[in-house]
Amino acid sequence: MILHSLRLFIYISILLHFLYPQLSYSQNSGSLRGFVIDAVTGEAVIYANVVVKGSGRGASTDTRGYFYLPNLAVGEHKVIFSYIGYQKRESTVIIKEDQITRLDIELTPSKIILEDISIIGERTVREAETDLGLHNISIQEIEMIPTGIESDLFRALQTVPGVSSTGDITAQYYVRGGGSDQNLVLLNGAPVYNPFHALGIFSVIDPEMITMVEFFKGAFTPNYGERLSSILNVITRDGNKNRYKSSVSASFVSAKASAEGPIPGGSFIATGRKSYFTKILKNYLNNKEAPFDFYDLSYKVNYSNHELVPEGKFIFHGFMSRDEVNNNDPLREDYWVKNNIIGLNWQQVWSSPLYSVMTFSYSGYEAEVIPNLSNAKPRWNKISDITNHWNFTYMYSSYDELHFGLQNTFLTTDLELENIYGRKASLNKTGYQMRGHVNYRFFRFDKVGIDVGVRVNFVSISERGPFFLEPRLSITYKPVETIALKAAFGRHSQEIISLADERELISIYEPWTIIPEYLAPSEATQGSLGMKIFLTEKLSFDTEVYYKKLTRLVEVNDEKYSKDSYDFIHVDGESYGLEATMNYQTLHYYFKTSYSLSWSFKNRKGETFYPRYDSRHSIQVLTGYDFGGGWKTSFSWSLRSGMPFTPIAGYYDRITITPDLLSNPFGDLQPAILWGDKNSSRLPYYHRLDFNLTYDFAISVLDFTTGVNIINVYNRKNLFYFNRNTGERVNMLPFLPTAFIKVEL
Amino acid sequence: MKKLFLLLITSFTIIFFSCDENFSPKEEFKDGYILYGIIASDDLHNSQRNEVYISKLYDVDGYDPGINVDDPTVSGANVVIEYRNNFYTLTQAERNRVDTSRYKNKLTYYYTNQIAPLPNNPISIMAQMPDGKYISSSTYIPDDMVFEYSYDFDRTGINPKLNQFLWGDKWIINWSAYQADYRKHLYFPQLTIYYEKNGATGVTAGKVKIPSTFIKRNGIEEPYFVPFTYGESVTFDFEAIDKTLNDISKDDTAKSSYSVGPVIFEVIEFDANLSSYYSSINGSLDAYSVSLNESIFSNINNGTGVFGSYKSNKRSFNFNSNYIKEIGYKIKY
């Protein structure tokens, strides 16, 4: 396996060698590179704009705050650094012939948003990027969304067009007609297999740890794979490099503490969250109390020693979480779920315009339902995922970029389960996967950006491995300065699945397994077209259309009544739709609205039906206002057409067989429902208005943030489901006010 | 801008305040038939009274089918069972209902006494409805089984005061089934003590089931009975046997007025169809998962319901006479 990796690495090196003639610099030119960091915290400023004044040349920083500007004329230049929420800074630099000049810049955060720099800078620099389907979500955006319990990344995702959910209760999300297990969540490059607390009510990732979120909802770049529908790449903060800082906060459910500060050669940050009162969660469970107990702990240490490793940076990070329901009753079931992630990243800027990121991570996940003496079915699931990535980026003087890399994954999944009919299954699988990727980004043209590449599957993790090549293509064309037309295409495969039973509206957890040997891996082919327009400097408009063909999806066989039947079967799927977003932002006011029109289908044994998360129309409105003096407010309103459901075809009298009743089996006739065709009807429209008000103030050295949230302001009775046993209508969240307070030192 | 912002929010609130709409989770109603037929058999291979119940699909106003008072039973159907190349036409009959809360009339059903089901034999049913529509099904009668015990009490009689270092603290009973699809079968084991109490008003007979074990729940000891098993084994704590036998005369000092009879171990075996049906109506993953709809097993062609069979397998034991006398009871065999 290692030989495979080395061999591929050699091939890519040879390829690079043949391309080398293009790497030489133009005569009388040099390059500029460096890092943009926050002057207060010392953390990287991501996507900051770097513009060489008067030259029309510019770049933006990446997730490490790194930028590279090749092919600049020799001589003195003025370079402008800017980003939303920071004071603009201008610096003079001298470019020398055939040399890379290093310039690191600190940007000072500004209390006043500088309107004029951000949008213009973004327009000139970012538009040519081949980023169709990519959404960058800021921590401010997450915090702006009113929330019932905790600020939540996944709730923020649900405001992105093309992302749907099946209800207020769960933070589970579905992207462009794909199932929930088709979404990969990466935390500092390591996969998170169970990113939810408390039956999926909110996510395990504390938003305060986050510095950057990349969300790909289709046709993602070749360095990403392993899932069919979306990639959520979460990068956590490095911690304050300049001073020690700590904070505590409390919501209705949990208490949170964090600490961060400098260390020799770097910084650290650690946050922890622990539940202490979970009775409020019964609002999410139709007033059914569950003794939830959970915690999560996240930490990150970064270290640089330029004498030891020049231009290198090492990041050690970890994350652990655990959820428990312990009823202390032998006739009731208990369960627990835990995640444990450890990772090491090595980021290196080489002497040539090459940088690399090497990632080693372990992601462990384990969950168990302990039935005790209840009728619950025992289930146990364990995953060990050891992955390393080697990703390289070479930046040419023409502004083109070559990306290539390797991924090795050792994966073990153990699964013991008993299905609803009492049939037991055991799936214990181990596999090794090696995938490589290479893509070339053409940024040499003024009006066109092209990203063409392929993800190569050298060794499959499942017995019936997927197709060998996954081509990816993304094109951007700018006919005029304020309009960008974009197109993307990609094929994706997936070899690990979760056992999501679509009939389950709420699940304790969804266990994962490598696709069993009797099934082939799932595949998706998708294409999209898009357009981005800046109508004014404050108003922008985005639209995308997409088509996705899903083949060989894996689903639970809900007609498995005997041990001899397979646990899982193949189904096919298809989805297409249109998404549009409008953004308007001024000094104190923010308005974002999006509309999504979509169709999703599945085909099972010749029967075509809508999956439960299919939603024809969806509108999201998010608006916020900064009153000044520390007062901020925001509202979010969402509307979507109802979820599909299986209607009632009629009623009949059903016999209840027990050994005691066998002498008179028809003595106990109980009325029952006969169900119609699967998901052939629709629930009513869903809509909800949420409200958020926060106030920041300081007392002595303590900074306070307090606020209130109101979920479902006008108490809309959104239908969740009808209880199949009682006929009772169960609604989603009612009017629900909550409050929080946070103290920072 | 502030006014625009407030106007926007107020508009949303006014437009959608507490609005609700009528919604029905039903689709257009269509007729359908339901058949339940359960073939009984035992390890003595006696003739059994086998019964079939046929009804129609119905609709109600609202979503509570419990309000239906129109009996959906189908009478006048022609029901035929085919068994070992013989055809048995079932007789329509009526009996009083156990539950008269919904239907006041008698229950109409179909029966035959003529079949003595033998193990491991196929059996089929076909019913012609009054409107001419046919529904049908078939199943297999469970095979005989052989028992094995962790301690053979046949000669000594059951004595739970065994040396636990030698024999453990549980009585384990295993059985072997030979039918091809026995792994699809459900087994309902139970151990029952039969006894008599000689009191001032005469002799009263009683029986009590022995739990598999006793568990503590909220500090209170409760019996735990194995509801069913897919495996071919069941255990009974010796302590549970002893406690159950002693509890027969709990709070009664006149121990000698009790006469203890046999202990019957019975396993009722459901065939594959009946097992699947039982599993599908009793299954749930856990108390927290919410399932939207259910997939109820049916093996009725052109209808819904189940046609299955079961077999009762019994073994009789006596208690050890010395053990019974130590408690103060008498023996009645």
Mean pLDDT level of chain A: 82
The CATH class of the largest domain in chain B, by name, is Mainly Beta
Assess the beta-strand content of chain B as a share of residues. Answer: 35-45%
CATH architecture of the largest domain in chain A: Beta Barrel
User: What is the 3D shape of chain B?
Assistant: globular
Mean pLDDT figure of chain B: 86
Q: N- to C-terminal separation of chain A?
A: 50 Å
* Name of the CATH first level of the largest domain in chain A: Mainly Beta
Give a quick rundown of the structure.
The complex is a heterodimer of chains A (745) and B (333). With 745 residues, chain A is mostly beta strands.
Task: Give an overview in words.
The complex is a heterodimer of chains A (745) and B (333). Chain A has 745 residues and is mainly β. Chain A folds into three domains: 2-126, Sandwich (Immunoglobulin-like); 134-233, TonB-dependent receptor, plug domain (Ferric Hydroxamate Uptake Protein, Chain A, domain 1, Beta Complex); 234-643 and 683-744, Beta Barrel (Maltoporin, Chain A). Chain A is built from four helices and 49 strands. Chain A has a 22-stranded antiparallel barrel. Chain A has a five-stranded mixed sheet with strand order 9-16-17-12-13. In chain A, strands 1, 4, 7 and 8 form a four-stranded mixed sheet that branches. Residues 16-26 and 112-127 of chain A have low confidence and may be disordered. With 333 residues, chain B is mostly beta strands. Chain B has two domains: 33-143 and 271-310, Immunoglobulin-like, CATH 2.60.40; 145-269 and 314-331. Helix content of chain B is 14%, strand content 40%. Chain B contains five helices and 19 strands. Chain B is globular and about 70 Å long. The mean pLDDT of chain B is 86. Classes of the chains: A mainly beta (745), B mainly beta (333). Chains A and B meet through strand 32, strand 39, strand 42, strand 43 and strand 47 of A and helix 1, strand 1, strand 2, strand 11 and strand 13 of B.
